[in-house]
Design a protein that fits this description.
Radius of gyration: 18 Å
Strand content: 5-15%
Structural class: alpha/beta
Order of helices and strands: EHHEHEHEHEHEHHHEEEHEH
Bound molecules: zinc ion
CATH class: Alpha Beta
Length: 287
Amino acid sequence: MFAQFGPAGNPDAFYEAGHKASADMPEWLGGLSLKAYEYQCSRGVHVGQATAERVGEQAACYDVKISIHAPYFISLATEDETIAANTLKHFQRSLEVAKWMGADRLVFHIGGPGKGGDRRQAMERSKRLFAQVLEQAECLGLTGPLLLPETMGKQNQLGSVDEVLELCKLSDRVRPAVDFGHLHAVTGGQYTTSQEFAAVFDKIAETLGAGAAQNLHIHFSRIEFTKAGERRHWTFADPYGPPHEPLLAVIAERGYTPRIICESAGTQAQDAITMQDFYKGLLKKDF
Ligand SMILES: [Zn+2]
């Protein structure tokens, strides 16, 4: 078992090659020896059952593991009843798509504490609504995929490593999605050394057990930031951090088998290959 690499969404090169449909992505990724694909429902769940099932069949055929990114409209910390009801709906619909696609992981953003809002209270509200999300999934028989709260890149978003782990402790169906680009941005440029990357894996292992660190879900991209945190995603050709080499060194050295989703702007498959090639070089193995 090795780490798996792949893109978030469909890269520019996919469209430039004349493709239009996401159902073609698994075959296209297979041709590049990439083994992961994060399907984007971030702007809402718009995919129908037939298309979703087609993506899933193709993914199984080309041995590509599928995760889904849930809508950005999810807000677990909300005090508004309509937004809370919509949040439950977004989870339900995303989990249905996950089932159709055979996706085993659903990544989501916790939400914000609101203007001037207290983070602690916002986390308590988030945990209460998230308990309902878990219960709803149980009732509907949608407990297949793991639910993954993501570490976020802006100061005004919930999703520090500790906040993410707090949600993970609610159920063993919940695991972290660690976006190291976001962590780099929100800490004003940390996460450039092996020690800093290793510390995240250590904390996850201590809190959730060794398996959670071993099979971590990772997002990675170069990110420009300001004092407020994340500004925008760039590509590996651009002069931003964090560097991928020290992260992959920790992964190779410790024999971890994470799924690493590259979120570069447009070059996410190409940059995933760059990471995969570097990782293979460290292992001195092709696969
Ligand atoms: Zn995200």
